[in-house]
Amino acid sequence: MSSVEPDGESTGLILHVQRLSTEDGPGIRSTVFFKQCPLSCRWCHNPESISAQPQLQWYSTRCMGCHSCVGACPSGCISFGPQGFLLDRARCDGCGACVEECPTNALELLGRRVRVDALAEELAKDRAYFESSGGGVTLSGGEPLAQSGFAIALLQRLKEKGIATALDTCGFAATEGMGQALRSTDTLLFDLKIMDRVSHMAFTGQPNELILKNVLLARTLREAGETGARLWIRTPLIPGATATRENIVAIGAFIAEHLDGVLERWELCAFNNLCREQYRRLGMEWAYAETPLYDTSQLDEISGWARASGVDPSRVAVTGAARAAYSRTEETRRS
Ligand code: SF4
Ligand code: SF4
Description:
CATH class of the largest domain: Alpha Beta
CATH superfamily of the largest domain: Aldolase class I
Helix content: 25-40%
Oligomer: single chain
Bound molecules: iron/sulfur cluster
Strand content: 15-25%
Shape: globular
């Protein structure tokens, strides 16, 4: 859960910066996707972010089969079989020699090391749309606090530049680091996935006590005036895992009991399968590859459980892949 960076706070490993995002907090945002995550959610939608190391991926449609990469690899990790590119991931150290050699950009290294000052400068160039939209920078991932020193330093640099910040966290982080991060955070996007401890362990690989402790810390720091962070709770709606009536009602009851008055929004994020190709490119299996998206009536039913759970119903929002169809349903019902 602590930083593993060679230069401590000053250097971190990120995947990329997504500009003009409207999904990661208020307004229009630039989102920094961190590598590394302490959870292993079975449904993970960002498989490229789990590992703490740079990872190589191969695009079959760009590959012309020249095999230059095979000879370029100093560790002999690459071969080709009937299905195409084969990589010995256990031996690949992410040196990037094959990427340099590939003439068609069929290979890409996921993950780059950046210095905190350089990244803050890069992000400050987006100030125009932050200011016109009420947006800012969101730290997401992966789990930003898995590189806590770097994440906290980045939040502080951004605040020094007058840029609004958001932290998108799974909550499984050392409480001290969470507290430090919150003091430089304007919007906290906090995942509450599963309330039952055993089920949480089964689906994410970790228990949930620390997560619940950290979300209560956010409330405590708000009440003490040590952070002004507005609180958004986010729950991914995963068929058979998080999106059961029992779980949604339990999360709602927890929010109503402990976070009433500080909760701004409870976002139910509909399952999507946009990451299916990404799993394939990384040579990873995905248990949800054939799982269908929710239809509007299913989302209606799930959001109904949330709205009846004791949480202020006006705080509940549904986002994600079926959102457009869902919005039409809502409009029809109101008319
Ligand atoms: S160097 Fe690039 S184009 Fe050539 S075989 Fe390797 S991946 Fe394919
Ligand atoms: S990144 Fe380096 S070690 Fe990994 S396959 Fe390419 S050349 Fe080999």
